[in-house]
Design goal:
CATH class: Alpha Beta
Strand order of the largest sheet: 5-9-8-6-10
Radius of gyration: 18 Å
Oligomer: single chain
Distance between the termini: 42 Å
Number of strands: 11
Largest sheet: 5 strands, mixed, barrel
Helix content: 25-40%
Shape: globular
Number of helices: 7
């Protein structure tokens, strides 16, 4: 059976567009009338959002079903967006609604599981391609193994990490909707292909960005490991928290410059 099930879907117009929703929300005075001329950092860990709000002076805005804060240290040209949960479907919805309000550059930062011994807890991995093993991307792009982040924005993000002397690795990620249906056979297969990480958002967000003509870069802090084909969780490790904040700082610096 092909996926999506309806043949030729990618040539058809959507019944409801993000612009329709934004128009509706503005008619109800739920969001501002003005478009957003900002770069957006998408985050998934509540602990990171909490840390940013403790350390940064911010201006909250109601622009989506998420927590959205302009960063005054970036002259309100960069915003932190979080508090909407995890996974491709909700992240794609938030991204779509922000694009419809004028956002053109995104950096997504979160945690990921490691598939390789050399990617240890707290290590940072910058994504250069994402395996499309989730459902969202297939409704935006024709079938294909990978979705790709923006080359230019990814390069700028890496340069910000290098300038801050933050070590990182770069490689492929495996994006899947169902963490409780990852199998040892799949992990072994992707290890053989040299894939670094497994997570839940990257390929979908890359597909949305490509479809909508905006830029997205994404990177992860390693929070758990499947490298020896056993699960080793370290979600509360200080190394993970430190790396997430370094990713935030590099993302902020990048979006201020581009």
């Amino acid at each position: 059976m092909p996926y999506p099930n309806y043949d030729g879907k990618h040539d058809l117009e959507a019944f409801i567009t993000p612009q329709d929703f934004v128009k509706y929300a503005r008619s109800r005075k739920s969001i501002p009338e003005e478009d957003l001329n900002v770069g957006v950092i998408l985050c998934y860990q509540r602990s990171l959002l909490k840390q940013v709000l403790e350390n940064e002076e911010t201006e909250p805005l109601k622009v989506t079903g998420a927590r959205f804060h302009l960063l005054k240290s970036a002259e309100n040209r960069v915003a932190m967006c979080g508090g909407f949960g995890i996974g491709a479907p909700i992240a794609a919805i938030i991204m779509e609604e922000l694009i419809a309000q004028g956002v053109k550059k995104f950096i997504s930062i979160g945690t990921a599981g490691s598939l390789r011994q050399e990617a240890e807890i707290g290590d940072i991995v910058v994504c250069n391609r994402a395996i499309r093993d989730e459902g969202v991307s297939h409704h935006y792009l024709e079938s294909g193994k990978y979705a790709l982040p923006s080359a230019a924005l990814t390069l700028a993000f890496k340069q910000s990490l290098e300038k801050a002397k933050v070590p990182f690795k770069e490689g492929a990620t495996w994006t899947i909707d169902t963490p409780y249906r990852e199998t040892i056979a799949e992990a072994r297969h992707y290890q053989s292909e040299g894939v670094y990480t497994v997570e839940m958002e990257a390929s979908a967000l890359c597909a949305v960005a490509q479809c909508r003509g905006v830029e997205l870069a994404t990177a992860f802090a390693i929070s758990d490991s499947l490298a020896d084909l056993k699960w080793h969780p370290h979600f509360d490790s200080p190394l993970v928290e430190e790396s997430l904040y370094r990713l935030f700082e590099a993302a902020k610096a990048t979006l201020q410059q581009v």
